[in-house]
Amino acid sequence: MAALSAEAPSTAGYGRGIAMQVIAVAMFASMGMVIKLLDGRYPTSQIILFRCAPALLPLILYLPLQGGWSALKTRRPGWHLVRTVAGIGSMYVGFYALGRMAFADYVAISFTAPLFGTLLSIPFLGERVGIWRTGAVGLGFAGALLTAGPIAGEFDPMVLFAVGSAFGYGMAMIAMRKLGSTDKSSATVFYFTVAGALSSLLLLPAQWVAPTPEDLALLVTIGLVGGVAQIFMTEAFRLAPPSVVAPFDYTAMLWALAFGFFVFGTFPGPQVLAGAALICASGLFIIHRETVRGVKRAKLKSSSL
Hints:
Layout: H1 14-38, H2 44-52, H3 56-62, H4 77-98, H5 103-110, H6 113-125, H7 131-148, H8 158-180, H9 185-207, H10 213-239, H11 242-245, H12 252-262, H13 270-303
Helix pairs in contact: 1-10, 1-12, 2-4, 2-9, 2-10, 3-9, 3-10, 4-8, 4-9, 5-12, 5-13, 6-7, 6-8, 7-13
């Protein structure tokens, strides 16, 4: 899911921003597909090591465009800690669930992250969530219940891990919003990536599985693709506002359906598709309401000058 940028975009870059977001989502979906292929053979900590360590290479190459190493300076180390802990926790439980759930089901549940972010913005950001956004959140969670299966009496316990991952990312979204007003996006990504790699090293001595040459290539690819995808997403939010770029997050469902069918030989039933549609609709409506509120705030600010 998307990280917010503090830089003010111009309308000239909207098309490029959308294109970069679509590419980033496709790359993240491809990364998730490879993780699902490998997770049965390697522990989650090893998957996370390769998700994070190789990703540092494209990030370091990207740093000059952000102002060099000075871009890593921060005035909010506490919020970096929150973002890192929430993000790493989200990765661990999310990757564990991804290896044991249908791909499209996992992606559909992951779309609840912005819903959690909306609810968490109340205590942590002091935002007021009106009746329209509250209703949209409720609709989204109803869709999650439909996707998870308890309504039809078929509940997969792995769904709880997927929901936990979405909650963790929702909390990470709150931290990224706080950091976006003061820090470069590259700093947020860098500290999270380094911490993710280090956390995996704490568990790996007892869990390491020697990869085959073919699997090693796939493991390294996970990190490189993830790192490049993060840069594309960062640039997308630099070139265009969240209201323009964020809706294209939901193209991930198309990739999930394609990978599920052609790679894993699965296709979600009507219940999962209906639940995913409700979650996507609620997320898009929340983005719309956020945009309306942003326009109103801008008008009030300009009229008071």
